[in-house]
Amino acid sequence: MTDADTHTSPSRWPRTLAWLAVIVAMKLTLTFAMLVVVPRSKKTFDEYGLMLPWATKTLMQIDRIYTQYWFVLVPLKLALIVGGVIVGRHAFRTPRPGNVFAAVCLFVLAGSMAGIAVGLVIPQIKLMEGLSK
C-alpha cells in the first residue's frame, strides 16, 4: 500500500456549509431589502413627488413583482441555492468548480445588493438636496 492509497482527502462539507451559509445570509439580506427597505423608500419618494432615475424605476418594478410573489420566490431561490451548492459539491469531485459556483452566486448577490443601494441612494441624495434648499 502506498501513501496515496491510505491518504484520505479532508471532508469538503465544512467548506460547502460555509459557502452555503454566506450565500443564504446574503440572500436573506437581499430579501429583507426587497420586502421592507425598497417599499418604504418608494413611499417616501412618492410622498415628495420625486422624479426617479431609470435605475430606481426598474428597481421599483422588480420590487413590485417581488412583493406580490414573495411566498413563491423566496423558497424557490433558497431551494435553488441550497440544491445548487449540494449538487455542485457532488457533481464536481474537485473543490475548484464548486468554489467557482459559490463565487458566482456571491458575485450575483453582491451585484444585486449594490444595484439596490445605488437605486435608492441617488434619489435619496436628490431628496436631501431638495429639502435643504
Key terms for this structure?
mainly alpha, 5 helices, 0% strand, disordered N terminus
TL;DR?
The N and C termini lie far apart (81 Å). The longest helix has 38 residues, at 95-132. By secondary structure, this protein is an all-alpha fold.
Structure explained in plain terms:
Residues 3-8 have low confidence and may be disordered. Helix 2 (13-48) packs across helix 3. The protein has one domain (21-132). The chain has helices at 3-6, 13-48, 54-68, 70-91, 95-132. The chain has 133 residues and is mainly α. The termini are far apart. The longest helix is centred in the last third of the chain and has 38 residues, at 95-132.
Task: Spell out the blueprint of helices and strands.
Layout: H1 3-6, H2 13-48, H3 54-68, H4 70-91, H5 95-132
Report the biggest beta sheet as strand number plus sense, adding barrel if it closes.
Answer: none
- Write down the overall geometry: elongated
SSE series? HHHHH
Radius of gyration: 21 Å
Q: How much is the average pLDDT?
A: 80
Proportion of helical residues: over 70%
Unreliable sequence segments: 3-8
Query: Number of folding domains?
Result: 1
Number of DSSP helices? 5
> Total number of β-strand segments?
0
Span of the ends, CA to CA = 81 Å
